[in-house]
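Appendix B, record 7
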Amino acid sequence: MLDVVESKLGQYEAFRADVLEGLAQRQKTLPARWLYDQRGSELFEEITRLDEYYLTRTETAILRRHAGEMAAFLGEGVTLLEYGAGAAIKSEILLDAIHAPRLYAPIDIAADFLAQTMARIRDRFPELPTRAIIADFTADFDIPPDIPKAPRAAFFPGSTIGNLGPSDAAALLRRMRRHVGARGRAIIGVDLRKDVETLIAAYDDKRGVTAEFNLNLLARINRELEGDFRNEAFAHEARWNERESAIEMHLVSLRPQVVSVAGMSFAFADGETIHTESCRKFEVAGFSDAAQSCGWRVEKIWTDPAGLFAVFGLAAKR
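Structure tokens (predicted):
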């Protein structure tokens, strides 16, 4: 219990520092990881069920079609480390296929949401040992010593790696390589480049769930950092950045205004934005090169018939 309290205190300080620093920039920005509080995590799970959001259903179909191959690739008795686990819906597909998994360790920054996920996994797999790790997977952290060291595998579905900049994505790939060890494996979902209309629709749905997800970050700042954002004074916007090969999510100020957060004031011009998330889209060759430069060898690539999405099977280089 003390570890959870200390973790929450550390998260508060990190959240405060990131928000104050980000809002002080010329291009105001907020790290995407803070979108995922309890409400944000719930909204994201709702997003994954939207018609426009092809990513989840496409990756899920790949996992269902190739679960046996993936399980054989990971090997018997593996400890599965899932980064940014969230609701861990896709994990059930993989865990169900793995022969005699030794332990499942979901990693997530949202402690309360992770507790709900753990309860569901334990109910679904009562014989499977589990161990939650409350951590920000985008920052450096160590795997607790009580988790079996080998064989280990990293699981990172959802193309969440596309939410990281190139240097942060490389750091995470190296971190995973360190966590799983010399004989470790990884299964990573990657969204592929496609037409811009499909991409924009996926991040700006007609029902406005993604808009609510993005605007929830302002509500979180108000609740946790004594902010006075007015959600009705901002609008969600999704943009394509060709140079970065990424969809960007922004919160657009609808009028000139001054906002207070943690005792500091920040001025917004009409139309000024807060950049909250980038979702990079990859070419197969480009991601393969990036993984290999970070200590991995690409052994398997599973994709859908339309080539919308790819799941990579990586083996640690020795």
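Remarks on this record: The radius of gyration is 20 Å. The longest strand covers residues 234-241.
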